[in-house]
Amino acid sequence: MPSKLDITRRDFLGGTALALSGAALSPMELLAASRAKQPGYYPPALTGLRGSHPGSFEVAHELAWAGKHPAIPKQQTDADYDLVVVGGGISGLAAAFFYQQRSEADVQILVLDNHDDFGGHAKRNEFNVDGQHLVGYGGSQSLEAPGSYSAVSKKLLRDIAIDPQRFYRYYDQEFFEKRGLGAGLHFPAASYGRDVLVANPFETFASDGVDDLAAVVAQFPISEAGKAAVIELYAEHPDPLPKLSRRKKIAYLQKISYVDYLQQHVGTPLEVTRIFRDVPRGIMGVGWEATSALEAYRWGLPGFDSLNLGELEYNWADSDEPYIFHFPDGNAGVTRALVHKLVPDALPGDSMEAQVLAQLDYGALDRPGAPTRIRLNSTAVDIRHTPDQSGVEVTYASGGNSYKVRGKHVVYAGYHALLPSVCEGLPGDQVAAIKSVTKVPLVYINVALRNWKAFNELGIYHVDVAQPPLMHSFGMDFPVSMGGYQYTRSPEQPVVVHGTYVPAVPESGLSPIDQHRLGRRQLYEMSFADFEEKIVEQMSGALGGGGFDAERDIAAITVNRWPHGYAYEYSELFDDLDFGPDYGPHLTARRQLGRISIANSDASAYAYVDGAIDAADRAVDEQLKL
Are 307 and 330 contained in the same domain? Predict the structure, then answer.
């Protein structure tokens, strides 16, 4: 049964309550209800169903699914711009910044975004828990290994006053260790008949394993044969591929899943592989049954010791940089810094520290006459060159009406799969390349707790979940204190718990792309009440032994739903082994079309901040060379 908790559920669009009959509203009415002109408009403070929120996707779906185009105005409804950017995420904002920075004269730039907030997946969530201000991240999480960024991406961070080295001071790398908190493994009652929480014996990003493996495994709610198989997994084995050379072993591991490898060559039964099957979904988008065994080897997982493969040329897990480059609001800290440069009046503070708690004025984002204007709640529905090819006309829908602007140049930094539905003149091979992949659906869940006594009592800070009903992991947010924002210091204080859910179809035999498409359908069929029920069920089951009481302890829940989440990164198990950021269909998909260039991390086939920035750099350079 759905929960009836007394928690904050402000299911609002721009401050206007969404009535129960909201499903009957037209897409244009939904957009009209979320206009930034309303008093008190402040999207980061909204809870409930966020991310791709109601009102942000309906027009695009009518375009892509039904071919229904809003009317194109006969006359232009706004002034000319030097650059129109479609998509206000990291890549779109970076493109606006690069264009402004590299143009020899003063320029006029318009950024359009279909959401009620800028940033794309770099989304900021805020909570007020009993008078205490909490900040969390609802999408793009951290700067991954910024020391390896391209020169362009490194320079952009410097230019917007972000110095990753400062996070060595702001991120308390010993916070959990000092308090004796480790990682837990939850066997939920929905899958195992009863709730069991143990120390996590499997090496993951949150766990280094346990000292007494047998004692922990003895608590698993599985068969005795299954428990023995877990112990055997970590034992020494003879080489399971003795007839293959090192080169052929590597080639073989690239084309067999980790689950199949364990079952066929190590003798690990399905009962055991299901326990850790879903661990990589937060990064890979699918579980180990659809991810290569070689990737598991790169992660340092068991079952490979006797193969004698040694070091691989590519092993991203060996980065010398710790995973600490995280703003309290994730990479919303990056987009806010970009907005400060593009629209200085909107956000005060000239440093990464000063901007953490600075209040953003959404009314300043789209002021007439400003060099750069960021227009929210605006879905691009038609992009075409003018008859004389001297510019590009962009029609967008907002507030129940259609508007048409003209730019000398356009950078499309939105979801690539929508481009064929809105852009006239794309060649057939480019359309085919765009449609050959799809984004990874993703849900980032933030639960504001009044305290974290249960975590402390159980001696954990992070939980991985075996055969999860929803979240495959959840735990206390990153311990970052900066710019006047203080991470929780005692179990009696509020904290944000972050959960991850990537919908997939495990053990279906389907490719990642097919799983992503089915997973996206699952997301659209789920209401906030569906999410809330599962979140409460999982947290209660895992933390109940520590005294957790959902009714008492949960203050608010924000579900950041991204049906079009991560950019697709090629799978060595299912895709051509030559495909990667430097080669693959995405190169055709991102091809310039006259005065229209294509950015976004999709264009890099790389779902990280530097992939988005580098794509913006290339797109702007293409246009400046015209």
Answer: no
